[in-house]
Amino acid sequence: DVRHGPILYLEDVSVSFDGFRAINDLNLTIDDGELRCIIGPNGAGKTTMMDIITGKTRPDHGSVWFGSRHDLLTMNEPQIASLGIGRKFQKPTVFEALTVFENLELAMAADKRIWPTLTARLSGEARDRIDEVLVTIGLTAHRDRPAGILSHGQKQWLEIGMLLMQRPRLLLVDEPVAGMTEQEMERTAELLTGLAGKQSVVVVEHDMGFVRSIARTVTVLHQGSVLAEGSMDQVSSDPKVVEVYLGT
Ligand code: ADP
Fold first, then answer.
1. Structure pTM?
2. Which residue of 13, 17, 90 sits with most ligand 1 atoms within 8 Å of its CB, as the best mutation to test the pocket?
3. What pLDDT, in 10s, does the model give residues 112-128?
4. What domains lie within the chain, and their CATH numbers?
5. CA–CA distance, 3 with 160 (Å, rounded to integer)
């Protein structure tokens, strides 16, 4: 399917905490369907950037647009989420006592648009959607097991699945492979690259091997603004980037 223009657009965004500029004239454009990796040393502003996109933190100035129609700075967190912006934090927060299926069911119910249809049992359509997501995240065989007995990697995939239940247009994913085995990392790479195209995915990640394996475009943040942007080969051979990483 043909995509048009950017899905996310940050222009000259700045925010200070007690006089310290955590985000400093940040410019960032994410194209519709793109898979983008954001890297940068600790304190570069990656988390704050995600907080600004989701409405958790208000910038002091600048603009943040979702598509060409939604000025995110006029909206609160729930309003922004309801546009289809999903965020996955580093630690998995699945409901351990519920089955994988029930976790996905609940995630669907969290979508206010389907509350009216949840009066009795899930519709066939909803069940189909859960089955579809189970295939995407590779957990079909674990459908009726409690989430608490899943491996760390499987919990991470389940949580991504829970976000997918809401059919997001943009997924923000914080350090998805932290604590994963090599094999789980490979599976996560497949999952995230498979999602891109259908939705846009922004991944903050420290593992450079993983970043190299998934990203076409990498954005390097440093001191709250973009230090370099391009392919992994381009940014990793950029003297400014080398200096920042060797200097820390
Ligand atoms: P990263 O995620 O890249 O490690 P952060 O966005 O967490 O960076 O932080 C950027 C800078 O802003 C850091 O120096 C951090 O200490 C500071 N910072 C972030 N959030 C707050 C806050 N709520 N209050 C004060 N300082 C903050």
1. 0.92
2. 17
3. 555 555 544 567 778 88
4. 6-246 (3.40.50.300)
5. 23
